Amino acid sequence: MQEKEYYEIIKDHIEKLLGNRVNNFHLEITANKVFTNHLKAEIAQHRDIIFHFLKKAAPDITGFIKKDHSSDFFVIEIKKNLLKLEDIYQARKYTDLFNSKFTFLISLKPIPEEIKRLHRVTYEILSLPTIYRAFVLAQFDKEKGGFVEWYPENPFEKDTYW
Length: 162
Prior knowledge:
Shape: globular
Number of domains: 1
Largest sheet: 6 strands, mixed
Strand order of the largest sheet: 1-2-3-4-5-6
């Protein structure tokens, strides 16, 4: 299967996890660099310049959690192969552009031990400015039909983020 064939499957799994935590959210596949008006409307006007930069590359899945008067953004990047350092920096770019609360870099392969070790010695590679935001690596196992690993932690199991 091609990477793009996993977008809808992974989006559905994330939506189920989100549904257990929040009532109002929206996710859409944006790998084609097309963002619906529904998603665009949640971008603050002073940040709409980001779309200029997203014309050449966009997250595979983008979305938001709607709060009373604001939105927290989600970006999800999916990789069919083993994660590489370049993949982390690609996801980091989307994190910064959207100022996302959650960034998921999801692989269909196990998370490499080298990436975990690198994180332990250069903690900032996966850290975000506050403890209320998360940059998470995850493995989606197509045979088991779900997530089998979260690194450094599963944010859906930690109340701090919600």
